Amino acid sequence: MRVTTAVVTLTAISLAVFWVTEVLPGDAVGVLAGAEATQAERDAVRVALGLDRPAAERYGEWILGALRGELGVSLVSGREVAATVGARLGATAAVLVPAAAGILILATGLGVAAGLRPGGRVDRVLSGATLTLIATPDFLLATALLLVFTVWVPLAPAVALVPAGDTLWQHPGLVMLPAAALAAGGFGATMRLLRASVAQTVATPYVEFARLNGIGGLPLLRTIALNAAPPAVHAYTVMIAGLFGGAIVVETLFNVPGLGAELARAVGQRDVPLVQGLGLAISAAVLAVLLCGDILTRILQHRTQRQETP
C-alpha cells in the first residue's frame, strides 16, 4: 500500500514539476539565442529544441523516457540530464550523510535527556535553544557559520573547491562547514520531536508499571527507548527528507557542486529539461527516504506491541 502511495505521489509530483517549468517566465530560448536575437531567430531555436510542440506531448515523452532512466538533454550544456544527476548526487551525499549523522547523535542524546524529565532545567534550556534554531532561516544559519568560521575564526574554507578529478568525499575539510550548516537547520525540530516522543513514553502506564516493579537504570531506559523508537524513527526520516530542501540553500552558499546548486543554476538559465530531471530525482530521493522510514516505523511498532502483550 505504501509503495503504491509513493508511486502515485511521484506521478503527481512529476506533473507538478512539468507544469511549474512550463509557467516559468522565459525559457532557454532567450539564453541560447542571445539578447540581440530577432523573433525569427528565437522561433527557429524554439523549433529546434522541440518547445513548439504541445505540452501534453512533451510530458508524455519525458515521463516515458524517465521510466527508462533517460531524463533528456540539457538545453544549455547539451549533456545528458541523467549523467548530470549522477555526477552531482555524490557531492550532495557527501554533505547530507555527515549532517544526518550529526543530527542523529546530538538530537538523540539531547532529546532523551530533555524528555526523561519534562519541564526540568535541562528541558527548558534545550527547548529555548532549539526554538531559536527553528525560528532562524537556513540561509541565516549558514551565513552566520560562514562568517564565524571563515572570517573571525578561519578554521574552514569559505567555498568547497574540489580539485579536478577528485570527489568531495576525499576532502573532509571541505565538507565540515556545509554539513554543519545543514545540520543546524534540521537539529532543532528533530530534537524537539524526539524529546516529545520520549516525554510521552515516560508518561505512559507501561513505563509507570515498570518503575513500580523496581525496574530502573539501563533496563528502564531500554524500555523507554523501545517504546519511543517508532515515532522517533518517523521524525528522523522526515528530517532527512527535509535536508534535501536545505541542501539547495547550503550548496549554493558554499559552492558545493551538488544537486541543489545545480538546480538553482538550471532555474537561472531556464534549462527546462535539467530543472525537470533534477526536480524529479530529488523528489524520488525524498519519497524513498520517507517510504523506508514508514516501513521501519511499522516494523518497530509491531515489535513493541508484541513485547507489551502479556
What does this protein structure show overall?
Helix 1 (2-23) runs antiparallel to helix 12, helix 10 runs parallel beside helix 11 and helix 11 packs antiparallel against helix 12. The protein has twelve helices and no strands. The mean pLDDT is 85. With 310 residues, the chain is mainly alpha-helical. It has two domains: 2-67, no CATH class; 82-308, MetI-like fold (Orthogonal Bundle).
What's the alpha carbon Rg, rounded to whole Å? 24 Å
* CATH superfamily annotation of the largest domain: MetI-like
CATH topology term of the largest domain = MetI-like fold
Class by helix and strand content? mainly alpha
Give the helix tally.
12
Shape: globular
> Approximately what portion of the residues adopt beta-strand conformation?
under 5%
Which stretches of 5+ consecutive residues score pLDDT under 50?
Answer: none
What's the structural domain tally? Answer: 2
- Architecture per CATH nomenclature, i.e. the level-2 architecture of the largest domain: Orthogonal Bundle
